[in-house]
Design goal:
By secondary structure, this protein is α+β, with helices and mostly antiparallel strands. It is built from 19 helices and 7 strands. It has 2 domains: 198 residues, H-NOX domain; 116 residues, Homeodomain-like (Arc Repressor Mutant, subunit A). β3 and β4 form a beta hairpin. α12 packs across α14 and α13 crosses α16. The longest helix has 19 residues. This is AraC family transcriptional regulator. InterPro entries: AraC-type_N, Homeodomain-like_sf, HTH_AraC. GO terms for molecular function: DNA-binding transcription factor activity; transcription cis-regulatory region binding.
Amino acid sequence: MDQAIKYTTIAAWSLSIANALDASGFNSNEVFKNAGISLTDIQNAPNSLLDIKQMTALWKEVALITQKPHFGLIVGQYSNIKKNHIYNHLIKKSDSLLQVLEGLPSYYGKLSNSVCLTLNNTPHLLGVTISPLEGVEISDMSIDAFYSSFVSIINDLVDSDSFIHHVDLVRNKPKNKRPWSDSFNCETKFAQEVNCLWLNKSVLTQFSVKNLMLEKKMASSFDLDKMSLTEKIERLIHSSIANSEPTLDEIAVMLNMSVRSISRSLKEEGLTFRDILKHKRQELAVHYLTKTEESILIISENLGYKNMGNFTRAFQTWFAQSPSQYREDCRNKCRK
């Protein structure tokens, strides 16, 4: 292995581990400390790069603390990858799920240089293979976490239980195979030569990503009948803003109304769509800053901002102080 190369992975993966640990009743701060990693530093810079040796040490500590060989599957359910701007760009530029998957190797290469992700094409199946680079130690749990998050992403787009054909894993056969079969909803083979998740092409090609995203947003509007127009718009903004800033055109489609009708109705109330969007962002910003430990970067992404600077400037305009100052002031008041 070339010693000049530093093998890394995106730090956000370790945040998924922290979230899964906390949700499972473990002390994530203690686990990270034992692995020689500052969880606070990771929370403040989730898009930074973490040395793969540190990441592997963290996985070993997780295995020791949890005593659950399948814990990587749980971590995958807490993945923040869907909020990564590279992933969102990949989704937006693809017409079908098959195109999304075909773009995965270049996408994943931007997140980690410690493994090789390749696609294996057969007439009926598409295989997603993960191979550690020579001399690089990768935890079995990290492979499980990647495939679990991968399945979660597709499940988020497609209501189908037949898109996975089977899964091959290099890891030794565990005493209890059920967590893997339950997670992937298919046959899982252990002690194989390569790690590969095999997908049914026929399922992947029949779904349009753009239609799936629109249908997903529209589904959230079914319980809005008894709300006022302003309340409906606020609810739809809330449900979709973490993916990207919603537009009036998108909201109009979800409400089955014309843009002109919405604008006219809001004008009668002395409001505009931008007013409602700003109010919802202010409300959510205060919630995230005072009720969570999310970093400013993650909060800005949760509010649909393309970069943290835009959020910070907007917040400064709203409250005459920066997000970090606002959070610190609230903490100081609580201590008194």
